């Protein structure tokens, strides 16, 4: 199954991508990772990407899709793959289709902005070891102190309320229109993110045809 996973930042899309990847034995392809790999391996598109990055430019959709095409031609993608983080805009989705990359299903993990804001604002990470906590759902034993290494737990810059609002706005402006785009093609399925991750996972697996 060739899947795209959609979801606002903080909706838990990454976690669900891992779950599907394990259940269906198909790789999860994150654009950031394959871009770094292509640059490291010095592939044709990797070199082009490096050129753009060195010049302080954004890597063009054409290059990203080229790298993506190389990646999904590898043998582990024979039975499908999960795209995570691409496409992010309708023009990117159109380019994907124009370059012959077909998609079977687009799965959206939906969580309201309100919930996302409360989830992310409660998140804390250890500045020493990176362990993550949540003041409500997964508090450290001592407030502000990491259970694992006694390091200080802090709010990531990405999780500060202003940044979260910005990230959500970008998502709604640029990425949410993909729901219409794939909806019209009859490929969109929305799963409502639950308070318990395990409950969301059940719904996600059902949506991709795995009965746990
Ligand atoms: Zn720690």
Count of alpha/pi helices: 9
The CATH architecture of the domain at 2-26 and 79-113 and 166-207 can be given as: 3-Layer(aba) Sandwich
Mind telling me the C-alpha Rg?
18 Å
Large-scale geometry: globular
Ligand species:
zinc ion
CATH class division of the domain at 2-26 and 79-113 and 166-207: Alpha Beta
- The helical percent reads 40-55%
CATH topology of the domain at 2-26 and 79-113 and 166-207: Rossmann fold
Query: How many strand units?
Result: 8
Average per-residue pLDDT, rounded, comes to 92
What is the structural class? alpha/beta
Main sheet summary? 5 strands, parallel
CATH superfamily of the domain at 2-26 and 79-113 and 166-207: P-loop containing nucleotide triphosphate hydrolases
Distance N to C terminus: 18 Å
Oligomer class: single chain
Strand order of the largest sheet: 2-3-1-4-8
Estimated share of beta-strand residues: 15-25%
pLDDT < 50 stretches? none
N-to-C series of helices and strands: EHEHHHEHEHEEEHHEH
């Amino acid at each position: 199954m060739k899947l795209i996973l959609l979801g606002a930042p903080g909706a838990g899309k990454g976690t669900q991508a891992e779950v599907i990847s394990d259940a269906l034995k198909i790789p999860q392809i994150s654009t950031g990772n394959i871009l770094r790999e292509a640059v490291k391996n010095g592939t044709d598109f990797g070199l082009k990407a490096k050129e753009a990055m060195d010049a302080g430019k954004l890597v063009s959709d054409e290059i990203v899709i080229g790298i993506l095409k190389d990646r999904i031609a590898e043998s582990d993608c024979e039975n499908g793959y999960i795209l995570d983080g691409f496409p992010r805009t309708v023009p990117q989705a159109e380019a994907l289709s124009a370059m012959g990359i077909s998609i079977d299903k687009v799965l959206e993990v939906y969580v309201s902005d309100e919930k996302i804001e409360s989830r992310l604002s409660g998140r804390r990470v250890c500045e020493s070891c990176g362990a993550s906590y949540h003041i409500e759902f997964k508090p450290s034993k001592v407030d502000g102190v990491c259970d694992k290494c006694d390091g200080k737990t802090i709010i990531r810059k990405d999780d500060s309320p202003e940044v979260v609002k910005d990230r959500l706005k970008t998502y709604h402006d640029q990425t949410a229109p993909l729901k219409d785009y794939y909806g019209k093609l009859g490929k969109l399925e929305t799963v409502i993110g639950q308070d318990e991750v395990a409950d969301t996972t059940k719904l996600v697996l059902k949506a991709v045809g795995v009965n746990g």
